[in-house]
C-alpha cells in the first residue's frame, strides 16, 4: 500500500475542493444540535414570513439524516463573489443597486456542477461507492450552520458567515455523504462589541444581535415577498432593486483583503461578475421593460428569482425614493396598470416624487 493511500482523506478532500475552484472547504459533523434546532425557534417567532418552502421540510433542516439516511459527514465549501467598488455604494439619482452576488451568472449554476465533481472525486479518493447529496441553497440543508461548524467562519451579528481574512461575501455549498470524515473545529466569534451592521440596517431587520427578522429585511421584501411591500418599509428600501448589501458593506471584516485578491484559475469568480446593466441599474430602463425584454435581460442570473412583476414593483419603490423627477413619466405609465398592486406602488412613488 502506498503512502498516498495511507494519507488521511480529510486534507485530500479539501484539496480537491480547492482544485475545483472553491476558496475554502471544511468538514462538519451532521448531528442535530442547538445551532440547527434554532431554525425551528426562528420560524415559530414568525421571522420566516411567507417563505413556506422553508417550513415544509423543517425536520430535514434540523437533522440531515432525514435528507440522506446514514449521513456521516458534511463537506462545506465557500466561493467568494466579486465586491462592489466604492463608487457603486451611493448611486446617482435614477440609478439603483443590485446585491453584488446576483448580477452575474446564477451562483447556483456556477457552483452545483463543481459540487457534483467534488462528490465524484470523493468516491475516487475513498475507493468505494458513496451516497452523496450536493446542495447550493436549494435543498433542505442549513449550509451556513454546517459551514460554521466546519470552520469556514463564524456567524456574525448580521447572521452572515464571516471569514477573518476575506469577510462575508461568500456563496456556500455542501455535500452530504455517508463517508466518515474527521470534523474540523469551529471558528470563534470575533464580532466583539461591534454593532455596525445592527445600527446601519435601513429597516431595523435585526430583532437582536445574531437574529434576523426576515420580514423586515430588504433582501426578503425585494426577492421572496410576492405581495405588496409594506408601506412602512418602502422608504428604508432606498435605492435597492434586488437584495441588499448594507450589513455587509459596513462590516469591518469586509474592509480587509478583498475577494478580488484571490486567484481565480478556473474563472468561477469571473462568471459571477455582474452584467454592467445591473451595476447601478438604470431605473428608467427597468420600468420600460416588458416581460420578453425582462426574460432576455435576466437570462442565466439570480434575478429571475424575483420575476418580472417583482422587479417592476421594486423599481417603482426605488424610483419613489430616488428624488429624480425625470422618472415621473416612467412611473406614471404603471399608475394605470391593470395590476392593482403595481398601480398602488406607482401611485405611492409619484407622491414621493
Overview of this structure, please?
The chain is an alpha+beta fold and 353 residues long. It folds into two domains: 3-83 and 104-177, no CATH class; 196-352, no CATH class. The chain contains 17 helices and eleven strands. The strands form four sheets. Strands 1-2-7-4 form a four-stranded antiparallel β-sheet, with helices on both faces. A hairpin with a 2-residue loop joins strand 8 and strand 9. Helix 2 (9-19) packs antiparallel against helix 6 and helix 16 (328-335) runs antiparallel to helix 17. The longest helix is centred in the N-terminal third of the chain and has 20 residues, at 107-126.
Query: Strand count, sense and closure of the main sheet?
Result: 4 strands, antiparallel
Alpha-beta content class: alpha+beta
Q: Rg to the nearest angstrom?
A: 21 Å
Based on Cα principal axes, name the global outline.
Answer: globular
Low-confidence stretches: none
Secondary-structure element sequence? HHEHHHEEHEHEEEHEEHHEHHEHHHHH
- Give the overall average pLDDT: 96
In helices, the fraction of residues equals: 25-40%
Total helices: the number is: 17
How many structural units, i.e. domains? 2
Number of strands: 11
Estimate the strand proportion. 5-15%
Kindly report the spatial arrangement of strands forming the biggest sheet: 1-2-7-4
Report the end-to-end length measured between terminal Cα atoms.
Answer: 75 Å
Amino acid at each position: 500500500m502506498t503512502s498516498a493511500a495511507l494519507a488521511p482523506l480529510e486534507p485530500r478532500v479539501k484539496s480537491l475542493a480547492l482544485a475545483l475552484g472553491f476558496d475554502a472547504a471544511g468538514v462538519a459533523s451532521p448531528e442535530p444540535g442547538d445551532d440547527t434546532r434554532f431554525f425551528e425557534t426562528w420560524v415559530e417567532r414568525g421571522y420566516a414570513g411567507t417563505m413556506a418552502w422553508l417550513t415544509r421540510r423543517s425536520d430535514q433542516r434540523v437533522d440531515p439524516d432525514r435528507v440522506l439516511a446514514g449521513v456521516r459527514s458534511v463537506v462545506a465549501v465557500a466561493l467568494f463573489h466579486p465586491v462592489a467598488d466604492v463608487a457603486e455604494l451611493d448611486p446617482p439619482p435614477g440609478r439603483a443597486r443590485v446585491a453584488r452576488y446576483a448580477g452575474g451568472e446564477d451562483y447556483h449554476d456556477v457552483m452545483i456542477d463543481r459540487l457534483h465533481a467534488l462528490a465524484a472525486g470523493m468516491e475516487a479518493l475513498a475507493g468505494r461507492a458513496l451516497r452523496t447529496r450536493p446542495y447550493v441553497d436549494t435543498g433542505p440543508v442549513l449550509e451556513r450552520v454546517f459551514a460554521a461548524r466546519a470552520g469556514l467562519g463564524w456567524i456574525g451579528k448580521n447572521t452572515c458567515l464571516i471569514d477573518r481574512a476575506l469577510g462575508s461575501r461568500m456563496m456556500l455549498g455542501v455535500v452530504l455523504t455517508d463517508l466518515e470524515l474527521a470534523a474540523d473545529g469551529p471558528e470563534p466569534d470575533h464580532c466583539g462589541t461591534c454593532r455596525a451592521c445592527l445600527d446601519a440596517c435601513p429597516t431595523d431587520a435585526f430583532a437582536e444581535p445574531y437574529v434576523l427578522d426576515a420580514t423586515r429585511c430588504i433582501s426578503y421584501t425585494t426577492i421572496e415577498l410576492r405581495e405588496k411591500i409594506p408601506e412602512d418599509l418602502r422608504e428604508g428600501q432606498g435605492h435597492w432593486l434586488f437584495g441588499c448589501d448594507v450589513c455587509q458593506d459596513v462590516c469591518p471584516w469586509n474592509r480587509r483583503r478583498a475577494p478580488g485578491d484571490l486567484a481565480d484559475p478556473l474563472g468561477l469568480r469571473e462568471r459571477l461578475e455582474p452584467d454592467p446593466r445591473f451595476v447601478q441599474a438604470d431605473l428608467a430602463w427597468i420600468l420600460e421593460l416588458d416581460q420578453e425584454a425582462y426574460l432576455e435581460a435576466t437570462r442565466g442570473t439570480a434575478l429571475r428569482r424575483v420575476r418580472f412583476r417583482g422587479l417592476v414593483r421594486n423599481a417603482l419603490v426605488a424610483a419613489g425614493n430616488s428624488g429624480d423627477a425625470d422618472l415621473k413619466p416612467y412611473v406614471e405609465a404603471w399608475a394605470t396598470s391593470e395590476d392593482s398592486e403595481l398601480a398602488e406602488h406607482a401611485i405611492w412613488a409619484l407622491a414621493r416624487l
